[in-house]
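Work package 3, deliverable 3.1, input record:
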Amino acid sequence: MIYGAILAGGVGARMGGDKPKQYLSIKDKPIIVYTIEKFFVEKEFDEVIVLCPSMWVEKTKDLIEKFIPDAIEKVVVIEGGEKRNDTIMNAIQYIEQQGKLDDNTVLVTHDSVRPFVSHRIIKDNIEALKQYDACDTVISATDTIVVSEDGTIISEIPERKKMYQGQTPQSFKAKKFKELYMSLTEEEKDILTDGAKIFVIKGEKVALVNGDTLNMKITYPYDLRVARSLVEEEDA
Amino acid sequence: MIYGAILAGGVGARMGGDKPKQYLSIKDKPIIVYTIEKFFVEKEFDEVIVLCPSMWVEKTKDLIEKFIPDAIEKVVVIEGGEKRNDTIMNAIQYIEQQGKLDDNTVLVTHDSVRPFVSHRIIKDNIEALKQYDACDTVISATDTIVVSEDGTIISEIPERKKMYQGQTPQSFKAKKFKELYMSLTEEEKDILTDGAKIFVIKGEKVALVNGDTLNMKITYPYDLRVARSLVEEEDA
């Protein structure tokens, strides 16, 4: 079984206050809907799990019903966890509750605020999981990467050709993820905020999958501006 | 003396073929002109040296005359070198020819394709050089940074809070830069494409200066799109 998981924030993420970015709209449609659509149309996914803050679960279901009514049967919306990896664990727990968790269960996790992920990238993630237990979507670093231990003086400027910027999807054999995650101490869990890093730390191979500069994360206001112009261009 | 240096490419950079990005226009004004303006208005600069491909020297002078006629006396346009550091060395050679190279000569080098650099960033660079021989403008890494030695499997995912993305300006005590550069082997020169890295490799302290996400590098077509919308917003 191959599952998609759209990570849209956990229980504590921005309760009250601002609307989370994934619910902002591009051309009258929330970003998260674009992202769900990208996963929904992939035939290889048996099911797509959307994980969002508890107070957004019903709203997200409503959005799916409104914008992608066909998706209701293939897309499930559940609550995320406290941190990113807890959220992934919630997805795995859901799979387990369905009695579908085995050694070959693949989970393709993706940021809800990366609506421009392509079919090619998702396909390459699934393909990589035929050979490896985990993969990470990356692009070559466009900027020089600088390391500073103390935030004041440069410690190192590593060779740029070895440096990549992480995107998503990150894909995992779900059972393996669970095993590795359960073996972490609380302290390790605090530090290891990145799913792929758990595999790396535990000595497991994580394959690189080529991302795309277009597969951008909507973080800053100007990202939203770019995203809007990209969608307008697609429509033109 | 404090010099600004706008790095706009060397002798071999894109001879023929496409127009270099820094000569593309945003609202009818070439990007490089925006960048030169930012440096020209800084009172602390005694002179601003623009280094560009040989075939663009006259054109660049014409652009300055057309768009910033006041700048003619403070801005000089000369040919860049083969690589980035050669270009910086050309700037230093120019300063030396003017008889102005001493232990306190400061050179603030900046990418011509970062037109949104702010007064604050330039000021902080100059300030940092009062205490250090070099500084580098950076922002905290927004993406997870991934290291791969072989381009296939992840070697390491370093702790994100220690990782920064390099921007410019990079500022140097010019004489020190020259000394360090002259001490490099040809092989080292090939590898060390980043000016600040020369200082790091040679065990010299390089201070971090806070950049800004707005101080973006115009690399991809969508960067140009963002840049255009930023300029339109400023005008609005």
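Helices of chain B lie at 31-40, 57-67, 84-97, 119-128, 174-182, 186-191, 195-201, 221-235.
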